[in-house]
Specification:
The protein has helices spanning about 35, 165-185, 195-220, 230-270; strands at about 1-15, 30, 45, 50-55, 60-65, 70-85, 95-105, 135-140, 145, 150-155, 155-165. By secondary structure, the chain is α+β, with helices and mostly antiparallel strands. Helix 2 (about 165-185) runs antiparallel to helix 3, helix 2 packs parallel to helix 4 and helix 3 packs antiparallel against helix 4 (about 230-270).
């Protein structure tokens, strides 16, 4: 599972090789994109990145400012797709935690150390709204770790806390499924002899619930565990199916009872003692 984002990555470091004497009226130098390739940049990479690209329309979206004391501020606009370990047992009433791992690829802590800027660390768009999630908060931490055989490498991690908005699923899944279950109960009030109507209603509700359950799972990752929405759809299908089974059971019992009543009436007519006893005149009464 993954998520996508676009961001401005900003880094600041000090490189003594870029110091220069202050110029009158010039506080800093703004470097052209062609000159940026000649200046050293930290070899940061995203550990959980699956796909990414820099924006280059109409020019490379990069910025570099060099101060007289050798301080360099570098900014780049990029879009990425990052992996995120989501747990969907409570879907669609779940909350997720997604990370961004930033690490140095080739320089160990002996040469490069990443630190979060003092304040603010991460800026988000004011009034940010996501289609399926509600942005709760974010945290930052240091995740420097050692690799066997290569050394210790600096690492930073940002964690986003997201809560899924369930209004879409309430309107598109839960409410319609409840109405379909209630509709299947209408067959209880139909006459027992209205077989075509009750069978049509029962089969229609069963097929509708099956289709709705398949559509609800079509856009979800295939996981090996049961989700909350799976339990809901299974119970709705169970109620609809049992309503159809109830009609079959009642119909069979009604036909058996009707057959017994008909047979009992026929036997009583055939073996009635009064119908075959002789009359007073020695005649058999009809």
């Amino acid at each position: 599972m993954d998520y996508a984002l676009s961001m401005y990555l900003r880094q600041k470091w000090v490189d003594p090789r870029t110091t220069y004497d202050p110029l009158p009226g010039v506080d800093l130098l703004e470097m052209d994109a062609r000159v940026m390739n000649q200046i050293w940049v930290p070899d940061m990479y995203f550990v959980n990145e699956k796909a990414a690209h820099f924006h280059e329309i109409t020019v490379p979206n990069k910025l570099m400012q060099v101060y007289p004391n050798g301080t360099i501020m570098y900014s780049a606009r990029l879009s990425m797709t990052l992996s995120c370990d989501m747990f969907l047992q409570k879907f669609p009433f779940d909350s997720q935690e997604c990370d961004i791992h930033m690490e140095s690829y080739s320089y160990s802590v002996k040469n490069v150390v990443f630190n979060w800027h003092e304040e603010p660390l991460i800026l988000t768009k004011k009034g940010l709204k996501l289609p399926q999630f509600k942005f709760i908060k974010m945290e930052h931490m240091n995740c420097t770790k050692a690799y066997e055989g290569t050394g210790t490498y600096t690492c930073l991690r940002a964690r986003f806390y997201l809560q899924r908005t369930s209004s879409y699923y309430v309107a598109q899944v839960f409410v319609p499924s409840v109405l379909i279950v209630v509709l299947s109960w209408v067959s209880f009030w139909l006459d027992i002899d209205a077989v075509p109507a009750r069978i049509s209603l029962g089969l229609l509700t069963v097929l509708t619930m099956t289709t709705m359950s398949a559509n609800a799972r079509a856009h979800l990752p295939r996981v090996s565990y049961i989700k909350a929405i799976d339990v809901w759809m299974a119970m709705c299908l169970f109620f609809v199916f049992t309503a159809l089974i109830e009609f079959a059971y009642v119909n069979v019992n009604a036909r058996v009872e009707k057959r017994r009543t008909t047979q009992a009436g026929g036997l009583q007519l055939s073996f009635n003692p009064d119908s075959s006893s002789p009359g007073e005149n020695g005649e058999v009464s009809a």
